[in-house]
Structure formats: structure tokens, C-alpha cells
Amino acid sequence: MSREISRRRFLSQSAAAAAAVALGSKSFAQGRNLPPAEILLTAAPGSAQILPGDPTPINRFTAKETTPARGIVGRPGDSFLGPTIRVQKGQRLRVLFVNNLDNKSIVHWHGLDVPEASDGHPRFAVDPGETFWYDFTVINRAGTYWYHPHPDQITGPQVYSGLAGLLVVSDDEEASLPLPQNRADIPCVIQDRVFNTDNSLVYETGGREGFLGDVVLVNGKPSPNYYVGTRCYRLRFLNGSNSRIYKLAWSDGTPMDVIATDGGLLEAPVSKPYVMLAPGQRVEVWADFRNRQVGEVVTLKSLEFSGAGLFGGALPQGHPFDLMTFSINRQEFDNLSLPKKLAPFERYDPTKAVNYKNPRVFDIVPNAGMWLFNNLPFEMENVSENEIVRRGDLEIWEFKNTWPGMKMAHPIHLHGPNFQVVERTIDPAYQSSYNNVKDGYVDEGIVDTVMLMPGETIKIAIRWDNFAGLFLYHCHNLEHEDRMMMRNFRILP
Ligand SMILES: [Cu+2]
Hints:
- The protein has five helices and 31 strands.
- By secondary structure, the protein is mainly beta.
- The chain is globular, with a radius of gyration of 22 Å.
- The protein has three domains: 33-175, Cupredoxins -  blue copper proteins (Immunoglobulin-like), CATH 2.60.40; 182-330, Immunoglobulin-like, CATH 2.60.40; 350-492, Immunoglobulin-like, CATH 2.60.40.
- Residues 371, 410, 475, 477, 480, 485 line the site of copper (II) ion.
């Protein structure tokens, strides 16, 4: 490289870095100017009207704001879900969690990069009647995050019982884009359940593989219908299910215009024939109803797919069904159209990773009715030599789902900072089942959870910029997580 080119490159990078800093500090400034959001968050038994007839006994989060920060904006669909917490990037969030359940619990802020003491690690679980203080500044980009319990071995049943809520982060960069807002910004939390004849919930995992419900809820209601106008909508999907994977698509073949993933807006919208959404993942879709007729009904489906495991039951993994409908019932006008550019972010260069030539490997291994990382079970405090990283390092992690005879898909979730997907490879023996999901992966964005099909190996790039400490990586199939498919890693200061 000539000196001149290298100097020009340096200057342009510096300019870009300066612009990024300016943007960052501007959006931080807005959050900093707000008072801290102080929330009293209680988990307790309750009941909810889910099906016709008797109400369903559930557990639920309730929240009370103790400052006028206006961070709590109601429950999605007025359902059993926890209240949505809305914060600005840069804003301080102080939460007093009160455990009024009949078992130990702790809350994890899924997708947020927070100090270890606020991460909701199971070692911090508190007994019934006890409380836990969270105190952190929201440093994540604008996006759709969520919160849910994370106690050792009982995360699955607690989330299933109704304990989950959204945490929506906004920032100035997002606010500067012409995106649908307010009533045109709709959360869609997807969960599957089994009900007894008296409408109470059934939680039976039937062995190691996971839990599948035969009634699919969106915002706490089975196959709901939403009335919409002839305008554009921002649909924020969260897969809050324990084990079910969705293959989201419009029934009439309209492409899915994806604008965001777990960690916020993409650099530019991507158009997919369908979108795979595994447990824990979020995706935001731009829905354009401008050319629809009043009276038209648009159906969102989960399409058929195979090869991801979890056979049997009333609604096996990969069986097709209708999720929800949107009925156009009014003429409305907005001057929005899908932006060509959304929000840029630093794209990691894998060749700059400290272990580029020798990635850290996590092999998913079946063992005695469980799935383990590198054949190691969960240990509350321990890490292995392979699970120690340094703050500031960019690394490549390789997850392998290639054990002989592997038939199970796994959504892998990392606590701490979000990451980027670098590469996927598939064992040719699994190519046919891979072909019916691969066009629905949204690897263009920043994510905290990534799905691996059987036979698949994936490389991710991740950098720990902010907090040292003990954090988790685990399968977000909650029954796998509860059965030891979880490990710590340590970030050295
Ligand atoms: Cu798993």
C-alpha cells in the first residue's frame, strides 16, 4: 500500500469514526437528559382471559413506575405479557425486581449489554419474597429487546407460565428515519401453549427434546385479527416460545421486507420469501398495506418446513398454520415508503479477529438425554480454559451442530454484546432440509441469537467492548437450556 493511499484511508476512516462518535454522543445525550427510569417490577401469580370461558391461571409481570420517565407503555395486546418498557439509548434504568412467585427467580434483559451484576445470571436468583436491584445505562442501539426469567433449570416453566415482556430502545438515529410510529408500530409476541379443558396451561416436555404447544398465541390471543388502515406498519416480532421455530410468510406470497433483527435496524431493508424466527429471536417487518382494498384480509402464516427435530405431538415442529390476520377496514394516508437506507453499524472484519486462523469451537454433543457444549454440563460459577476471553478483543466463535445423526435445530444465545454472523456451512448430507429454511435466515444484521440447523456449522464475530465478568451462552430452546445446554464464559478486564 502506498503511503498516500494509506494516509487517505486513515483520514477517511478517522472522518467516519468522528462521525460515528458524533452520532453516538448525540443519541446518548438525549437519553442522558432524561431522568432515570425507575421501575418496580413484580412477578406474581394471576389469571388472564386467553380462551373463551374460564380465565387461565398464569404468572405475570406487573410494573409500577416510581419516576415520571414514562417508560412503561402497556402490555402487548392488553394480554398476560409483561408491560412493555420503553427507554432511550443512554438512559439509566433502575429496576427493583420483586419475586412473589412460589419459586426462585431472576430477570434477564435479553439482548442488552449490561454489567454482570445486572445480567440476570442464575447465580443471582432470589427466593420467593425477596428482591433484586438492577441498575444500568442502556447502551444498545434502538431495537426490540425483551426480558424474561433466567433461574437455573426452571427458566422454561417460568417463561411458559407467562413471564415475558418487551423492552423497546429508541435513539435519535432511529427517530430521524421515516418509520411507522405509534399505532402503526405493532409488537407481535408469538408463543405456543397447550390448554387443559378447564383452560389451565399444560407444561409437559415429554422428554429431552423440548416443548411444543398446539395453540399459537400472538400477544396472548390465539390467531388474533388486527384491524389496520391502508398505510405502512412496523411489525416487531418476538419469538417468545420455548422450543417452536416459525417460518413467517405472507399468505399471498408478498415478500417479507425485513428492517431489523435482534440488535436493531439493518443497514438497508432486505427482502425475503419467508423469515425463520427461532426462540429468543426478534425480527421487524415493514408491512405495506397502501395498495390493499378496504375489506381485504391479509394472513400471516408459519409455513411448513422439515428437519429441525421435535416430531410428534398435536402440532409438530415445522407444521404449517395461520398465525394472525390483518383486516384492512379503513382508508388512511401516510407519506411513508420503505427507506432505501436504514441505520449503519460497524461491520466486523473477521480477518481482524485475534483468533481468525484458529476460531474458538463449541461442538454440540448429545449426552445422556441432554445436549451439551463440548460435552460439558452447566456449572454455576466455572469456566473452562476455552471459555475465557479478553475485553476489547474481536473473536470468531464457531458453533458446530454436526454430531453424527444430529436431528435437532438449536438457537444459540450469547449474553453480553450482540454479534454478527460471518459464515454458515452445511454438511451435504443435510442439504435438503437446509434448503427449506436457508432463505429465511436474516444474517445481515446484529443479533444475539442464531439458529443452527442439523448438519450446520456457523461462525460468528463478537467483540466485548464494555463489561468484564461472568456471562452465559446457551441454547434458547428453553428445555435444552434447563437441561444443561448452557455454559459460562469469562470476560477478562
Ligand atoms: Cu438446543
